[in-house]
Write a structure and sequence with these properties.
The structure is a single chain. The protein is mainly α. About 40% of the residues lie in helices and about 5% in strands. It is built from five helices and three strands. A three-stranded parallel sheet has the order 1-2-3, with helices on one face. The chain is elongated. About 25% of the residues are buried.
């Protein structure tokens, strides 16, 4: 049995929907009943992390089996919600989730959190 693998979504909801449409078309064409595996990095960098998470949490509406695995960016999101000053132990300690290279500000903005550069991190965290 095969599997469809979708990785590094990074808040690109429209692209995720497009990929799911391609998978659905392939499943109809082949009769394949393979699950769709989302390989993590659901959030960050893209404009629609909230939509990606909501969509994946609702699950498939057509009976397709989905498996979703958390990636390092999703792990960083969880770390931030627990403690805004913590960093992923596998990264440079200066790279907290709100660092420009990680994309946390984009994720929070998709939840309507004000992530302005001049706003103190504790205020961003409290609103998140």
């Amino acid at each position: 049995m095969g599997r469809y693998a979708v990785g590094d979504i990074h808040g690109q909801f429209d692209e995720l929907r497009r990929v799911h449409a391609l998978i659905a078309a392939d499943r109809r064409r082949t009769g394949e009943d393979a699950p769709v595996v989302h390989l993590g990095d659901l959030v960050d960098r893209g404009p629609a992390s909230r939509e990606v998470i909501d969509y994946l949490r609702r699950g498939p509406t057509d009976g397709t089996r989905w498996i979703t695995i958390r990636g390092n960016h999703d792990f960083m999101f969880r770390i931030f919600l627990d403690s805004p000053d913590m960093a992923d132990p596998g990264l440079n300690p200066a790279y907290t989730w709100l660092h420009d290279r990680l994309g946390g500000r984009d994720t929070l903005a998709s939840y309507w959190v004000d992530t302005s550069e001049d706003r103190p991190i504790p205020d961003i965290w409290a609103e998140a």
